[in-house]
User: Which sequence fits this backbone?
């Protein structure tokens, strides 16, 4: 409150509000003191699975119950802030960025959800080493990796816009791909080709491995993932859609190469062991079906 009184901002963009009590506190402090409060929520608000593609803001929450506590918290924050908008005129704008790529983080869909510290370099390292990469399902699951730069630009575009008050906005690229197309694009930009091993998501989840339980697979990449940016595009027809996912992947690889951050691919990882076991399983199935045992 002291900081608000001292700086007297007209607009506050909040990237670090995660809990209901935080939303309650900041909205009480800012009531009547700012022209706009931008709450950075998350695509996780919608939950999974999506029964329409692409998913629009007007569709609301796709499924209950929520899979993660993070999504529950964002849902509670949004409901509180929109209630204050309806009842007291609190000037909230809600933005929902999706999962995104930046120079330090490349979206993996098998490795740890904390992709800032886990898995963000191992994908390129495995691809360059000629090692196979697990792609959940048959590779045709719809995937929409975003660009951190694009999300930032979209949020900045909403600042100070009267039409943004009391509204919710998806921050998502116009592009989407399949999981296979995504891996092949990463490989191409890394100067190599992809060796893909398809394993059903149900099989991976049944293994009960910590690495899988904590990965994107459980909460995201077993499902089709594609959100609409149509509302934003219609409201702001002059917005430049120049920060693409492909550009973000390219910048990620170049930055890590330039700083010498890519290393040698690890050996005997969980992914290696799963692939080996899957190949043995499929070979044994063939032999059993053909009566070769």
Assistant:
């Amino acid at each position: 409150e002291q900081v608000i009184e001292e700086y007297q901002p007209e607009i506050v963009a909040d990237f670090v509000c995660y809990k209901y009590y935080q939303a309650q506190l900041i909205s009480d402090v800012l009531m009547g003191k700012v022209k706009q409060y931008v709450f950075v929520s998350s695509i996780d608000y919608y939950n999974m699975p999506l029964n329409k593609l692409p998913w629009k803001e007007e569709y609301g929450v796709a499924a209950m119950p929520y899979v993660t506590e993070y999504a529950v918290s964002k849902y509670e924050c949004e409901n509180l802030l929109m209630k204050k908008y309806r009842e007291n005129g609190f000037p909230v704008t809600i933005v929902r960025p999706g999962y995104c790529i930046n120079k330090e983080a490349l979206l993996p869909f098998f490795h740890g959800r904390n992709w800032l510290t886990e898995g963000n370099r191992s994908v390129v390292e495995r691809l360059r080493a000629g090692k196979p990469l697990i792609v959940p399902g048959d590779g045709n699951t719809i995937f929409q990796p975003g660009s951190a730069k694009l999300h930032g630009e979209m949020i900045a575009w909403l600042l100070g816009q009267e039409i943004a008050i009391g509204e919710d906005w998806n921050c998502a690229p116009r592009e989407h791909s399949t999981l296979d197309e995504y891996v092949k694009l990463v490989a191409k930009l890394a100067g190599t080709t992809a060796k893909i091993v398809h394993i059903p998501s149900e099989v991976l989840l049944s293994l009960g491995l910590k690495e899988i339980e904590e990965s994107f697979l459980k909460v995201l990449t077993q499902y089709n993932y594609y959100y609409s940016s149509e509302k934003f595009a219609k409201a702001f027809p002059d917005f430049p859609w120049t920060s693409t996912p492909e550009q973000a992947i390219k910048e990620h690889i170049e930055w890590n190469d330039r700083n010498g951050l890519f290393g040698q691919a690890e050996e005997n990882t969980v992914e290696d062991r799963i692939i080996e076991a899957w190949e043995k399983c499929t070979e044994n199935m063939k032999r059993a079906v053909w009566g070769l045992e």
